[in-house]
Amino acid sequence: LQAESLFSDSTLVLDKLAAVFLRMGEVDEALKRVERQAEIEKDNIRPYLNLSTLAQLAEDWNIAWVAANALVEKAPEYWESHYHLGSVLDVLDQTDEAKTAYRKAIELAPEEWRPLNNLAYLLNDQQTPGSWSEAERLLEKAIELAPEDEPLPHYNLALSLVNLGKETEALKQCLKILDF
Q: What is the pTM of this model?
């Protein structure tokens, strides 16, 4: 904290302090440092990316909303901008807007598994066979792209398969989860 008082406008110090506070479990303190960093580095997207992430961890949806929108405004070509916006919109129960944001993230980075997984999760809740089939297709792709030890797309695929009446295939996905 002495470094912070000596170098109050140093984004490097603020970034490092945010990381330290986060490791200590002090999300609110980390959030304050990242907010300050975003004030100083208005044209840099990294503070907004960090701010969106930390605000979501702190469940401060107002800050998360502002940061996610700033990300999309500053870097519309960056898939994580749309991914973060989708995450915030999902929590705020703006499902159609969240799906649109995830679809844009997928369009920008088809090799990323997380937006595929999150979009499929939302589609699973729609209670229509067409949505469940699309979720199944997206999750099969997400599983191909995800790290081998990532259980989440397998779990979501099992839900899609149950919805589609494919219980045997769903059970196979559940058994894969047990291997993690």
A: 0.81
